[in-house]
Design goal:
Helix content is 41%, strand content 18%. The protein contains eight helices and seven strands, in the order αααβαβαβαβαβαββ.
């Protein structure tokens, strides 16, 4: 197995040795080469922390396979780690609607997607997400037509994204929200949270309360990456 440099714990596993064990035991050995390449490209980006954690990506890939996803939505792309893993997982005739206002970051990963021959599955839309989702809902054919959605974008709009995505998903479709534990600050007193984490903390707490009270979904939060909340549409 290729040797990896020591990895900083990016989520709630704040023990270097344990996190390294998880990565080296069952994440890195199963990580496809294009994802390794894109992860290495992203590592030098000033905002590399925004990339999907590889252990969280492994969970997303498993969920995609379990539901047999073919038609998906991605809100928030960055350099495209989660987008690429989705494109590698869904069938050759599958489609991903990927929405992000930052084309420059997306184009960092684009050569890897082209090299992996999955670019044809991706419909990248350079835009803020809410107008695109609203436009999609104007077409009745889009309602209840998607198998899977992944959201890793501006936290303040997560509740707004949820209200639209739940309508676009099929019954039994899966939606995954990233950063729902927000560096563990959701469980800390506000007074102990640094100012630059406070807005995201408030948004995460509001989202978590809203999802827990939503009768339209099943819900499970797992401490992978910065917290993944997995929802299944019930009706």
């Amino acid at each position: 197995m290729e040797s990896e440099k020591p990895t900083e714990p990016t989520g709630l596993l704040q023990t270097h040795e344990l996190y390294k064990y998880i990565l080296e035991t069952n994440v890195y050995p199963r990580e496809p080469e294009p994802l390794k390449e894109l992860r290495a490209l992203t590592a030098s980006h000033p905002w590399a922390v925004m990339g999907t954690a590889p252990d969280a990506g492994q969970m997303i890939r498993l969920l995609l396979k379990i539901v047999g996803a073919k038609k998906t939505i991605e809100v928030g792309v960055f350099t495209g780690y989660s987008l690429l893993l989705t494109a590698l997982t869904i069938p050759d005739d599958g489609k991903i609607v990927a929405i992000d206002p930052d084309r420059e970051a997306y184009e960092i990963g684009l050569p890897v997607m082209k090299k992996a021959k999955v670019e044809h599955k991706i419909d990248f839309i350079e835009s803020k997400a809410l107008p695109v989702l609203d436009k999609m809902l104007e077409n009745p054919d889009n309602e209840g037509s998607f198998d899977f959605a992944f959201v890793d974008a501006d936290k303040i709009n997560y509740i707004n994204y949820h209200e639209r995505i739940v309508k676009l998903l099929k019954v039994n479709g899966i939606m995954v929200y990233d950063n729902t534990l927000w560096f563990g600050t959701v469980a800390k007193p506000e007074s102990s949270v640094p100012d630059y984490f406070k807005e995201g903390r408030v948004s995460a707490i509001q989202l978590n309360k809203s999802l827990a009270a939503d009768p339209r979904i099943d819900i499970c939060t797992v401490p992978l990456g910065d917290g993944l909340t997995i929802c299944r549409r019930l009706y």
